[in-house]
Amino acid sequence: MKRGNIILLLAVLAVGLVIAAAVSILHGGLSARATPTALEVFLARNVRHLALPSGARTMTNPIADSAEVQQEAMKHFADHCAFCHANDGSGDSPVGKGLYPKPPDLRAARTQKLTDGELFWIIQNGVRFTGMPAFGVVSDHGDAEDTWKLVRFIRHLPQLSTQEQIEMERYNPKGPEDREEEKDEQDFLNGGPPHPSPKTPHHHH
Fold it and tell me: Which one has a higher pLDDT value, 129 or 86?
């Protein structure tokens, strides 16, 4: 076969692969409800690995693990991370379910196999084309020490107890209705009158 024909054949195959990949990726349109295909999952994992700078993999965690560090990081995770990742790190949260791609299960081996430096880099710099922001550029949450503590807590997620998950609920961000309900409960415990239950509206036929 002539060289020109070989090049043409390879070009046609490349275009065919691109079209096949596009059809596979857009199987559910551009909806975030769609489930990523096996091809997308494969590409995402490998691209993430390639995107991490080599220097990140060799970074070591300067924060020693301790009960105090775990407690502090648990509160931080519940307040800033659980919104998408859920308290147990599964990603099975109302917001996480609506993201595309879905947040990874932080307890799973593919996440736990990342080095401390890689986890730190992802938290600080985010991941393009996902819902993971770069917390290192957010003034209130860009402290490197806090991020290293979060890495310690992520390592603990596979062993997270039910009691710890219940405790974390106290530190999850609360909306106006949650705060109002807590206030009513506190007022009642302090001897105040119970909050009247909302009346069911009457429907006229």
Answer: 86
- The number of beta carbons lying within 10 Å of the beta carbon of residue 86 is 22
The SS3 call for residue 40 is helix
pLDDT value, residue 12:
76
CB neighbour burial string for 171-191, b if at least 16 within 10 angstroms, e if fewer: beeeeeeeeeeeeeeeeeeee
52: its two tokens = 């991490």
State pTM to two decimals: 0.70
- Rounded to an integer, what distance in angstroms lies between the CA atom of residue 75 and that of residue 54? 31
Using left for φ > 0, alpha for ψ between -120 and 50, and beta otherwise, residue 138 falls in beta
- In this structure, what token pair is assigned to residue 62? 């300067």
Is it true that the peptide bond before 101 is cis, omega within 30 degrees of 0?
Answer: yes
pLDDT in tens, 12-49: 777 766 666 566 555 556 665 666 677 666 666 666 66
